[in-house]
Amino acid sequence: MNEDLQRAVQWFPGHMVRTMRLLGERIALVDVVIDAIDARVIASGGNPMLDELAAKRQRITVFTRNDLADPNVTAAWLERFREQGRSAYAIDARDKRGITLLADLLNAIATPRGTARVMIVGIPNAGKSSIINALVKRTAARAENRAGVTRSLQWFRVNPKLELLDTPGVLVPKITTPQAQWKLALVGAVPRERYDPFEVCMRFAEWCATTLGRSDVPDVETFARARGLLRKGGHIDEHNAALAYLTAFNEGTFGAISLEHPLHA
Ligand SMILES: Nc1nc2c(ncn2[C@@H]2O[C@H](COP(=O)(O)OP(=O)(O)OP(=O)(O)O)[C@@H](O)[C@H]2O)c(=O)[nH]1
Ligand SMILES: [Mg+2]
Predict the structure, then answer these.
(1) Residues 36, 132 share a domain
(2) Structural domain boundaries, residue 215
(3) From CA 156, how far away is CA 204, in angstroms rounded?
(4) Nearest atom, ligand 1, residue 250 CA
(5) Ligand 1 test: best mutation among 38, 50, 136, 144, most atoms within 8 Å of CB?
(6) What is the pLDDT of residue 201?
(7) Burial class of residue 226 in the structure, from the number of CB atoms within 10 Å of its CB (0-12 exposed, 13-18 middle, 19+ buried)
């Protein structure tokens, strides 16, 4: 495996260690844990450390980026969760109307003190802050398409009966398989400086052709030529082409693609 990808596997900076400790302390204050998982990577987009934390409370799993995932695969995941007795909802966090079901569910939670406190956890860039913004119906929490935007724990009040705690993303200390590694890089859970974007795009394109059987998803070279991302001499500018490719993937340019199916997880 490429050295850059190797380094990314080991990426578990001090602020994540600190966040895990803080989450452990704050769990006593909350009634419900929402774990946000990107709908395209339901298997590798989870985190067993956060699962353990969430198991201490009522838990609701929210699949984010439903708009970018294959609807059939999302339906299969929702079914799998239902079979396991887990509560799960798929949303497009940017669509304020789509969040109504989740909002109703949270607003219906009754607690002895009258206010329900909900902690939102997940790996970096999973869409945690976007869920908060959708529920409070304004841009209250900073949300950007890169890993590590939220740096501290912060409370947001939706109404007098509902408070939400936004938290920084926490990855697993070691991403075990090379497959999970390029997938997490592709969906933006790993900071860009921790991996080689060209290699991640290559692996994705290869996976599309072989595993998904999609011959219409271009490789980086074809993509770059179509967009004129060339250097002098007609060679492609690998780095910039790969970055543009990652953006295109995350904007849904290649269609709704789920990277993991429950039957193969
Ligand atoms: N298409 C689409 N984009 C989404 C969705 N949810 C979030 N995003 C985008 O994903 C990016 C990351 O969202 P954030 O809410 O900042 O993610 P986060 O989990 O808070 O990330 P960290 O704070 O870095 O851990 C933003 O650019 C959002 O607009 C969704 O359901 N669909
Ligand atoms: Mg955030």
Answers:
(1) yes
(2) 178-264
(3) 37
(4) 1
(5) 144
(6) 97
(7) exposed
Indicate whether 3 belongs to any domain: no
| Centroid of ligand 1 to alpha carbon of 12 (angstroms) | 20
pLDDT in tens, 72-97: 999 999 999 999 999 999 999 988 77
Distance CA 140, CA 136 (A): 7
What total of structural domains would you count in the chain? 2
Where among 118, 136, 166 does a domain terminate? 166
Model-wide pTM > 0.90? yes
Determine whether the shortest distance from the Cβ of 181 to ligand 1 is under 6 A: no
Asked if residue 205 and residue 93 are part of one domain, the reply reads no
| 157 found inside a domain | yes
| In contact, 92 and 98? CB cutoff 8 Å | yes
The alpha carbon of 124 and the centre of ligand 1 are apart by a number of angstroms equal to: 9
Of the three residues 166, 193, 226, the one that is the final residue of a domain is 166
Rounded to the nearest whole angstrom, what is the distance from the C-alpha of residue 159 to the centroid of ligand 1? Answer: 23
Ligand nearest the Cα atom of residue 39 = 1
